[in-house]
Amino acid sequence: MGSETKGMLEIQKDKMTEIKFTKLFINGEFVDAVSRKTFETTEPRTGEVLASVAEGDKEDIDLAVKAAREAFDHGKWPRLPGSERGRIMRRLADLIDEHAEELAALESMDAGRLFTLGKIIDIPACSRNLRYFAGAADKIHGLTLKMSRELQGHTLKEPIGVVGHIIPWNFPSTMFFLKVSPALAAGCTMVVKPAEQAPLTALFYAHLAKQAGIPDGVLNVVNGFGSTAGAALASHMDVDKISFTGSTEVGRLVMEASAKSNLKPVTLEMGGKSPLIIFDDADVNVATELARMAVFYNKGEICVAGSRVFVQEGIYDEFVRVSLEKAKSWKVGDPFDPTVNQGPQVDKVQFDRVLSYVEHGKREGATLLTGGKPCGEKGFYIEPTIFADVKDDMIIAREEIFGPVMSLMKFKTVEEAIERANKTRYGLAAGIVTKDLNTANRVSRSVRAGTVWINCYFAFDADAPFGGYKMSGFGKDAGMAALDGYLNTKAVITPIFDSPWL
Amino acid sequence: MGSEGNDSSERQKLRLPEIKFTRLFINGEFVDAVSGKTFETIDPRTGEALASVAEGDKEDVDLAVKAAREAFDHGRWPRMSGSERRKIMMKFADLIDRHVEELASLDCADAGKLFTHTKFLEIPQCAENIRYFAGAADKIHGETLKMSRELQGYTLREPIGVVGHIIPWNFPSTMFFFKVSPALAAGCTMVVKPAEQSPLSALYYAHLAKEAGVPDGVLNVITGFGPTAGAALSSHMDVDKISFTGSTEVGRLVMEAAAKSNLKVVSLELGGKSPLMVFDDADVDTAVELAQIAAFYNKGEICVAGSRVYVQEGIYDEFVRKSAEKAKSWKIGDPFDPQVNQGPQVDKKQFEKILSYIDLGKREGATLLTGGKPCGDKGLYIEPTIFTDVKEEMTIAKDEIFGPVMSLMKFKTIEEVIERANQTRYGLAAGIVTTDLNIANRVSRSVRAGTIWINCYMAFDRDCPFGGFKMSGFGKDIGMAGLDKYLLCKSVVTPIYNSPWL
């Protein structure tokens, strides 16, 4: 893959670099912010400015919510049959497939994600997610009830109304559709506030949505900052629901803002410090492969990162040896290079933060086995890093680092692994590597986390509900359960007379 | 009832129930508050102190949560099968039936509730509520999923952990079991903070729970005040969930406290300003009867009170005339008297608040049709009050009064009444009186409220989920949906090989 390939990559990238959409998308139109302000989004491969994007604030959120409210209260979208909404959503999915390359390139440039993976896995997964919910839109069921006297009762599941989605920068496209797909299927209208670190793909999707036939006002995108646009959305008196994915500290602010405004229901998907528990009977090759994925995938910028790797003592030494080898073959570089495994961290703030955690690790006495340093002099690249001899009370074992830093820990018994795995305020996910049925069942039931992966990791699926326990949040994305977040349940009761049964 | 009746009403005037339990119930024992403090609970029939009750504060909440945490993490309750929990819960229900008279007299003297009604209806319904959830405990199902590749996925519904229940004073027994029954069935452990206005029956129930075999630490009761004990529970770092029923203003504080502490999951059942819509085709006598119940039942101290009565112009005059007549036959008096329809308001604060709303109604220009004054010179009794010519902007049409005050309004068309019915930040319930199928369907779908009663009102049922839209809150009590609040959904995913189908 010599210099010739590199040249081709640059040309390819340039062709796709044209950034077409940089304004706010309100009521079917791309518009400037009321204040006319803009902000810059940087490219993590170089640290340089990528584009100037309209900076939305309270007035823009007000306009967007107004459009969404009108579209919900008087527009077509909630009044269409589910199958019609499904048809339009499938058209959007087709358009996404058609533009997969352009979208993957945007995401690589804006958030440092791997281009090839984006193009053949992530973006197609977005369109599949849309299709999943497109197919669910006409299968939203309530119940007829079993009343205890001569009454007829049933529940109706109605779209909750105007939804605010606040999404993070680590998987801009995936997060966009995780939220938007079920909300569209349910018949809601919405305002999306993408992360300021990665605002570009959301605007492209808004453009495609209009092209697909989603009526004006149903899907609005207001770019800007959390403390301005995000806060305005969370406190808005006319938003019926907020769906948030992001950090625990901002999750608190969102929930507080809701409590202080109109008590809108909130779902939060926040951080994690997920344990990957590897038992003696595991195949070391498979286990080290999984662990590497669990910690370094997407440069560690994933909420479910298996950042605490517990290895049973019987295979510990071999595990460490093979992990080190595997770390060395993990390639860090330009995300447009198809042979690269890890791109740059999303911005300088994250980059500095991860490195400071590495320092904490060293100072607190963990053993740095490999990595720990920046990679190259330009951009925000960090070497895949492994610490051993990590103790449960060390900062690197307790706090979410959100970078390619693995904490390796040895354990003896299954009871010990369970106890240590649960000693965290988080509860997003967990991994178990074993072939033993009883170990798998016992540990999967005992670990307090919203998703448990057995002999796999990051095995997401459109039909599998995803969401945390404890301080990782509440509410589910994906699966039929995700629809519940965008529906209100209404009970309707009527007396009945002369019914032949009760 | 004759002369014997006269004798008994004399005796009833002096009737003070024997108050056996006045201390906090923590880990299976009745104990004083750590501070030794007590507070008085008032008898609203006289305005005098009924009993001195232990006043729990933060330290007591800490002890109770500690006991509940131990009982959950290491105790039997969550580890029992659903059918074993059922057995104990059924015994609990039987004990309630056995002690119904004592319990009814407690709620009567403590909260001004009608004795006959509480003894023959409300408390037996509480026992039935426990039986409903007892029968559900072994029917808590997750799902096996339909994965899109060679993976096996299923969801497990696990008890959420330690629950805090904060309950109001208007239906002390019903509210206690609305919360406690599903939480017990789900396998959770809990701390109940009853309202300070009506702490007595909760303590009795705790005693019966122990007798029934509910293990120590599973059910704890801390009586005390909102800003101390309630706040401590909402902010507790080791409580997994708060279930709250009460005022909107306190609901905000609970949600804020959760956001600022450990982001515990919150469900809120708050106020309402529910519309009762009577159409021209209604039988006027039936409609007037319904409206009277809707506005005056339980002295108006009910969240779903149909306090806004919309009557179509065709039957309006007859409706007003008959309502005024019917109000005259609505008897106010001592709640131990079986002939009485309405007891005293729960305390002086509520009493004064309602009278000030009545005053406001007059000042803002509504016409006082009947009532509007206190009843008698002792205790907190208020006449059933009807205002006509009420306009939507008036305070009495917008604020929740929580007293026996009906606002009567005339409407012309179905579009108009739907719009006016929805012109509120609340969305708890609504009533429709018509026998026209299309009106019933259209209006029930158009009104944004969690429960719609057609040709009935306050038709609660155990299998019917109850909870509001908009600022009336989120989350459901009772029905199988009532369990959801006390369960967490975990996805378990494993790769599969050589499966003959996907």
Automatic annotation (TrEMBL), chain A:
Keywords: NAD, Oxidoreductase
Residue ranges of domain Aldehyde dehydrogenase in the record: 30-492
Catalytic activity line of the entry: octanal + NADP(+) + H2O = octanoate + NADPH + 2 H(+)
Active-site feature positions: 269
Superkingdom, taxonomy of origin: Eukaryota
Database matches in Pfam families: Aldedh
Transmembrane spans: none
Molecular functions (GO terms): aldehyde dehydrogenase [NAD(P)+] activity
Keyword Oxidoreductase on entry: yes
InterPro entries: Ald_DH/histidinol_DH, Ald_DH_C, Ald_DH_CS_CYS, Ald_DH_CS_GLU, Ald_DH_N, Aldehyde_DH_dom
Recorded family membership: Belongs to the aldehyde dehydrogenase family.
Subunit structure, as described in the record: Homotetramer.
Protein name: Aldehyde dehydrogenase 1
Source organism: Spirodela intermedia (Intermediate duckweed)
Organism taxonomic ancestry: Eukaryota, Viridiplantae, Streptophyta, Embryophyta, Tracheophyta
From TrEMBL, chain B:
Annotated InterPro entries: Ald_DH/histidinol_DH, Ald_DH_C, Ald_DH_CS_CYS, Ald_DH_CS_GLU, Ald_DH_N, Aldehyde_DH_dom
Superkingdom classification of source: Eukaryota
PROSITE patterns attached to this UniProt entry: ALDEHYDE_DEHYDR_CYS, ALDEHYDE_DEHYDR_GLU
Pfam families referenced in this protein's UniProt entry, alphabetically: Aldedh
Aldehyde dehydrogenase domain residues: 31-492
Gene Ontology MF: a single term: aldehyde dehydrogenase [NAD(P)+] activity
Residue stretches in coiled coil: none
Subunit structure: Homotetramer.
Name the record gives this protein: Aldehyde dehydrogenase 1
UniProt source species: Spirodela intermedia
